[in-house]
Specification:
The chain is of the alpha/beta class. The chain is built from nine helices and twelve strands. The chain has a single domain, classed as Divalent-metal-dependent TIM barrel enzymes (TIM Barrel, Alpha-Beta Barrel). Helix 3 crosses helix 4, helix 5 packs parallel to helix 7 and helix 8 packs across helix 9. Bound molecules: zinc ion (ZN). Zinc ion binds next to loops.
C-alpha cells in the first residue's frame, strides 16, 4: 500500500505498553505504521532502539517519531531554547537508531514576536540543527508540524516554507490542527485539495509521495484547538478527506491521534482501501 496508516504511540490493544509490543500489535491489527511517542521525553535506550528497529523491519511496520511536547524554539530564555533544540536532536538520534524515518515536533509560540521575526528565528535554529545532524550522520527527516492554535508558530505556509528553504526539513501537516486553528475551516474537498496544491507548488510533486499527515477529530473554539475527539464524534469531513488522498494518489504515512487510536486508524484505512477498489 502506498499510503500507510498508523497510531500515535502504542495501540490500546497492545498487551504491553512497550514500543516492541506496539509494533507487533500494529502488524496484528493489519495497520502499517506507528509513531514512537517520545512526547514526555526521549528515554529509549540503545538496546531497546535496536530491538524496535529489528521488530519493525521484520514485520514491515514504518516507524516515525513524535519529539517531546516541551519544546519552544522561540522561548525568550536561552536555556529553554537550548533544551528544546537538544530534545529534537535526541529524538532524532534515538529515532534513527530505532529505524524511524522522520521526527515531528511542535516548534513553539510566537510570544511577542511578529510572525516574520519568529520565522527567521526558527529558520536559523533549524538550519544549525540540520547541520549538526548531518555532521553526526543522522539522516532522519525533521518535520515541523502545523499547529492548532493561532498563538503557536506553525501555519501551513510557515511549515511549507521551512521545508522549501532548508534541506532535510519536510512538513508534518496535521489536518485536525489546520481545521481547529482556522476555527472550523479546511474541511471540504476543495480545501483538502488546496493543501496538496500548495505543497506541490512549494515542494514539488515528489512531496506528495512522501507525506507525513496527522489526523483526528478535534474540538475547538475561536482560540483554536481544545482537545482531540474520535472522528465519528467530530465535525471533520474524514470521508471527503480520504477521497482526496485517493484522488491525488498521496503516498506516505498517516498517523491517527484520535483518543481511540487504532479504531479510527482502521476506519480510515478501510475507507481508503474501499475507495481504491
Ligand atoms: Zn503533534
Amino acid at each position: 500500500m502506498a499510503l500507510r496508516f498508523g497510531t500515535a504511540g502504542v495501540p490500546h490493544a497492545s498487551p504491553k505498553s512497550s514500543s516492541v509490543s506496539g509494533v507487533e500489535t500494529i502488524r496484528k491489527l493489519g495497520l502499517g505504521a506507528m509513531e514512537l511517542a517520545f512526547v514526555r521525553g526521549v528515554r529509549m535506550g540503545a538496546k531497546t532502539a535496536e530491538k524496535v528497529r529489528e521488530t519493525a523491519k521484520k514485520l514491515d511496520v514504518t516507524l516515525t517519531v513524535h519529539a517531546p511536547y516541551y519544546i519552544n524554539l522561540l522561548s525568550e530564555e536561552p536555556d529553554k531554547r537550548d533544551a528544546s533544540i537538544r530534545r529534537i536532536l535526541d529524538a532524532a538520534r534515538v529515532g534513527a537508531q530505532a529505524g524511524a524515518v522522520s521526527v515531528t515536533f511542535h516548534p513553539g509560540v510566537y510570544g511577542n514576536r511578529t510572525p516574520a521575526q519568529a520565522y527567521q528565528e526558527v529558520r536559523t535554529i533549524l538550519e544549525d540543527l540540520m547541520a549538526q545532524l548531518q555532521e553526526e550522520g543522522v539522516t532522519v527527516d525533521i518535520r515541523p508540524e502545523t499547529q492548532g492554535k493561532p498563538v503557536q508558530f506553525g501555519s501551513l505556509e510557515e511549515v511549507l516554507r521551512l521545508a522549501a528553504e532548508i534541506p532535510g526539513i519536510k512538513p508534518c501537516v496535521d489536518f485536525a490542527h489546520l481545521h481547529a486553528r482556522s476555527g472550523g475551516g479546511w474541511n471540504d474537498p476543495q480545501a483538502f485539495h488546496q493543501v496538496f496544491d500548495r505543497m506541490e507548488d512549494m515542494l514539488g510533486s515528489s512531496s506528495l509521495k512522501d507525506v507525513h499527515l496527522h489526523i483526528s477529530g478535534i474540538a475547538y473554539t475561536e482560540k483554536g484547538e481544545r482537545h482531540h475527539l474520535d472522528l465519528p464524534e467530530s465535525d471533520f469531513a474524514y470521508r471527503d478527506w480520504i477521497r482526496v488522498l485517493v484522488d491525488r494518489e498521496i503516498e506516505g504515512v498517516v498517523v491517527v491521534e484520535s483518543p481511540n487510536l487504532e479504531e479510527d486508524a482502521l476506519l480510515l484505512q478501510r475507507l481508503y482501501q474501499d475507495a481504491l477498489s
